[in-house]
Design a protein that fits this description.
Layout lengths: L7 H16 L15 H21 L8 H16 L4 H10 L4 H15 L2 H6 L7 H20 L6 H15 L8 H4 L2 H11 L18 H19 L4 H13 L4 H4 L4 H4 L5 H16 L6 H8 L12 H21 L5 H11 L7 H15 L2
Helix pairs in contact: 1-3, 1-11, 2-3, 2-7, 2-11, 2-16, 3-5, 7-8, 11-12, 11-17, 17-18, 17-19, 18-19
């Protein structure tokens, strides 16, 4: 009998965490960003940069355990829901004033995570804090924060920008000894990261009124987490497969930076339209991403892109995660108070297809449906 890693309790905890990350606004201490800069979007950018960095280091011949990154991302998510919008610089000051060790703060978060998750899932999330992968991930979070700062420069006072920029560069200098640091900070890679980050400007469900605004960038992190958990739910022993699905979720809508998003019902309503759309997505990825990367990096990105022929047999599984994420997004709207019939129709129609989901995801869908069905 296979040992289960993911239980309904864990799915509830992760789903709640993702909702809270969506609600948490970044940069509120210096400006108003109109909901584009959320913690859930930031986590997607962290993971994308981590994947690039880990791939570069692995290419040098060093061993990198990619299976650690989803765990690091999930723990980071839980941390942010407790830290809220207090910056790490301010946390350091608070710790110093209270003679509090960072380790004690981290252990407090782990205690909270352990209360909200199963023992097996809690143990699964454990990663050494001083390992190479943890340093890569922490460094990637600083790179993505600096990217965000550049994006909002025109929205904040120049003195605030200079202060934040100097603080971030000082923190980043602590990771300058990481392999491939200069490559990650190069103009070519930074431009690709900026394009990825632009997906925060594309809003899902854009033609319908929304209370809880969800960007394509944030959606990609949602899908990554659900795909990871769904894979572990079905094949708990295959951590590599779950990791592949995680990064496929992170990258699955990357082409929309250039193509825009056409709803699936429209793409499926005309023979050949979906296939032509995927061809177009391959074209824009070749033009804007692959052709600007060394061959090994381009191959690494292709390996987690649904449009690549080698990944054709993964499409149906990732689509389940994508659809489940869409279901959750509509549930969030209703939970936040929306009475729009479109979101209720999505919940009702998808609920009828719940038998296609793994058991634990079916339980979560039922729980969400029942929580708002009478609202």
């Amino acid at each position: 009998m296979k040992q289960q890693i993911v239980t309904p309790k864990d799915l509830y905890a992760v789903n709640s965490m993702l909702f809270e990350l969506l609600c948490l606004r970044r940069w509120s201490e210096v400006t108003v960003t109109n909901g584009k800069f959320t913690e859930v979007s930031k986590q997607a950018l962290n993971c994308m940069i981590s994947y690039f960095w880990a791939t570069e280091i692995a290419h040098t011949g060093a061993y990198v355990d990619f299976t650690k990154f989803p765990k690091l991302a999930l723990f980071r998510g839980f941390t942010k829901t407790m830290q809220c919008d207090v910056s790490e610089c301010n946390l350091d000051i608070i710790f110093q004033l209270g003679s509090i060790r960072k380790k004690d703060f981290s252990e407090m978060i782990w205690d909270e995570v352990s209360r909200n998750t199963s023992k097996t899932f809690f143990q699964h999330l454990q990663v050494e804090t001083d390992c190479l992968e943890a340093r890569i991930y922490r460094a990637a979070t600083k790179v993505s924060t600096l990217l965000e700062l550049h994006e909002i420069r025109n929205l904040i006072a120049e003195k605030d920008y200079k202060l934040k920029c100097s603080q971030l560069k000082a923190i980043l200098s602590e990771y300058a000894d990481l392999p491939c640091f200069d490559t990650i900070m190069s103009a070519e890679y930074q431009e690709i990261f900026r394009n990825f980050s632009k997906l925060r400007n594309r809003i899902r469900w854009a033609k319908h009124p929304n209370i809880v605004q969800c960007s394509v960038l944030g959606h990609m992190f949602d899908v990554a987490c659900f795909a990871y958990l769904m894979s572990l739910d079905v094949k708990p022993a295959d951590k590599s497969l779950a990791t592949k699905f995680f990064f496929m979720g992170i990258f699955h809508d990357f082409p929309e930076c250039w193509t825009g998003d056409m709803p699936s019902p429209i793409k499926d309503s005309l023979p050949g339209l979906r296939e032509a759309t995927e061809q177009f997505e391959n074209m824009v990825m070749e033009k804007n991403v692959y052709s600007h990367l060394p061959s090994y990096m381009a191959e690494a990105i292709r390996s987690v892109m649904l449009e690549d022929e080698e990944n054709a047999h993964f499409k149906s599984f990732l689509k389940k995660s994508d659809n489940f994420s869409a279901y959750v997004e509509c549930w969030r709207e209703i939970d936040a108070g929306s009475h729009h019939k479109y979101y209720r129709n999505v919940l009702q129609n998808d609920y009828k297809k719940k038998e296609n989901l793994p058991h634990n995801f079916r339980l979560l869908m039922e729980n969400l449906y029942e929580s708002c069905h009478s609202t």
